[in-house]
Amino acid sequence: MNDLHASLLGGPPTLSVGVMSADLLHLGDAINEVSSAGVRLAHVDVIDGVFCPGLSAGAPFVAAVARSAVPDVHLMVADPLAAAEEHVAAGAGVVTFHLEATRHPHRLLQSLAGRGVVRGVALNPGTPIASLEPLLDELELVLLLAVNPGWGGQSHIETTPRRLEQVRALAGSRPVAVGIDGGVTKANIGRIAALEPDLIVAGSAVFSGNGPAAAARELLDEIDRAHGGGNGGEHA
Q1: Smallest Cα–Cα separation from 93: which of 115, 124, 110?
Q2: Active-site residue identified among 3, 23, 29, 45
Q3: 130-176, pLDDT tens digit by residue?
Q4: Is the pLDDT of residue 227 over 90?
Q5: Which residues of 82-108 are buried (b: 16+ CB within 10 A; e: fewer)?
Q6: Annotated catalytic, 181?
Q7: pLDDT at 230 over 90
Q8: Which of 69, 80, 190, 217 could form an SS bridge with 222, CB 3.0 to 4.6 Å?
Q9: Which of 48, 181, 198, 224 is catalytic?
Q10: Is 224 considered catalytic here?
Q11: pLDDT tens per residue, range 45-62
Q12: pLDDT for residue 229
């Protein structure tokens, strides 16, 4: 277990900020602002337009993010086995791929073993939780999507709490972190944090308000309140 993996377990939910929602012409400033609020992880959605609609950044973008924060790379691509290596080389601290995108998830997880990254598997809302079972001894993170990937303007899917409970039950005593990604807003982040996931991804909630630093602090405060204020202001 590396330090980043350990930091995701046993405390308040860690906030990972989706930087693709930032003003990309001023990305460095945006990341520095959220870092000043205590955010350590910068969530980067890598989208190829094949696995789901849209097109976004790749490894050079991740390398730029890595100068100021720990890249939390979410591979929303049709060939994650090919993409994983270049994103690790670019400085990713977390690499998460979609179970639906590869026939060889176990091989991909094994290829990332010992590379110093948190290995994550993401599940779309319609993918059964039981499909994780063969992989649980080879991963550190399960990322539950609470929206269908690639389509904007969706609301947080209300089956997510039940799915989180199912992952916890399936993982048992394994040190598997569980994250929630999609539809996270200032209005619902307290309710989501009360479910006690290990990781919460929020993008537009940080970058559509009165400044990223202030918005990030508001989200972190909501997480603290939901968790009983127990982290003393320190955020992973």
Answers
A1: 115
A2: 45
A3: 999 999 999 999 999 999 887 666 677 889 999 999 999 999 999 99
A4: no
A5: ebbeebbebbbbbbbbbbbbbeebeeb
A6: yes
A7: no
A8: 190
A9: 181
A10: no
A11: 999 999 998 889 899 999
A12: 65
